[in-house]
Amino acid sequence: MEMDFSLHRNQAASIPQDLPRLPPRRPESHKGDYGLSLIVGGSVGMAGAVALAGMAALRSGAGLVRLAVPEPCRDVVASFEPSYMVVGLPSDHEGRLCWNALERLEQWIQSATAVAIGPGLGRSPELTQMVGYLYATLKQPLVVDADGLNALAESGKLGDKVPAVRILTPHPGEFSRLSGGIKPSPTERAYYTQQYAAHWGVILVLKGHQTCISDGQQTWINPTGNPGMATGGTGDVLTGIITGLLCQGLGATEAARLGVYVHGLAGDLAAAELGQVSLIASDLLRFLPQAFQKVHSQGEKK
What we know:
The protein has eleven helices and ten strands. 52% of the residues are buried. The longest helix has 23 residues.
């Protein structure tokens, strides 16, 4: 196994030369060429999380974005952004997706290029069962975040052989629940990210200061981002970015690396203009276009 710390060493320099990049768009292309992101999440009181993920997937280039949410919060989620589609699914008495939603959800899964689950999902025994089932059976790439990770930790499915790639994006608390209580020190983060990516057979993104990304063979330490991003909703934006990149044909490792980089770069651009104290998650959406432009223009100079 190998750890690549080049991103960390070059953090004060230009964009890393080995950073994955999206290919140029063909003049004759259409929205179907850039995939359909399906993001499953939301619940009454947490509609904003799945909306942030959906808007981030759009800003990251997905051709179409569909959000699958509990019926009671469908209209609220739809009100945030007219450019994505929203479908309402059966819910329990507290406004969370219930097991009966799965049959209708599977109809929407069939047309998806990549799927994410977790933002604003909430927690319940039925959701634990649903997340475990989708994790084990979904044939598309799957990004799991937030309460999706908490459900996965309880489901007993983590580490099972699965039909397609899985990307997990835990913060340290979620990683501790997934790993049975491990809380890596700053100097141990890269080591444990790589060990558990290999152990679980996933792409693992351990979020935090100098986010670590590993495919189980190599590990990269991301240089972008700042403490202003330590605020609710920024992880939901990252989920949407990675899912949008997967829809455009990037491999899972490449989508995770580029997604983490532009997510942090958008945060740095936002903090430069707004300051760290006042930065909120939706500010990242405003600065994502600039972040992608910077990465793209640097790539053209190679």
